[in-house]
Amino acid sequence: MVFSLIQVLSGILLTYTYTPDMMEAWNFSPNLAQEVVIEGSHPSLLFTLLIGLISVTIAYFISKRYINNH
Questions:
Q1: How far apart are CA 42 and CA 46, in angstroms?
Q2: d(Cα 10, Cα 17) in Å, to the nearest integer?
Q3: Membrane spanning segments where (predicted)?
Q4: pLDDT tens column, 25-63
Q5: What's the confidence (pLDDT) of residue 46?
């Protein structure tokens, strides 16, 4: 429990103090892929997409219920 609390607090602190280097990001941008190709019909890919769809649906209905109750 203490370790988890320390991890969360250090993550918050590091996120708060992080400042990105924009010039370095632009230097890396030409090396990035210009498109993403998703191919194959592996059951794991379909399962992952299904889990994502279910998660988004649950989040949507929870947010609608929360907004309607307040």
A1: 7
A2: 11
A3: 41-62
A4: 888 777 777 787 777 666 777 888 999 999 999 999 998
A5: 82
Report the SS3 class of residue 13.
Answer: helix
pLDDT at 16: 93
Q: Which residues of 24-49 are buried (b: 16+ CB within 10 A; e: fewer)?
A: eeeeeeeeeeeeeeeeeeeeeeeeee
**Residue 23 token pair:** 């010039």
Asked whether residue 24 carries a pLDDT value surpassing 90, the answer given is: no
The reply to whether 51 falls in a domain is: yes
Is residue 47 included in any domain, yes or no?
yes
Q: Give domain status of residue 36, yes or no.
A: no
Give the residue numbers spanning the domain of 52.
2-31+42-69
Indicate the number of domains in the chain. 1
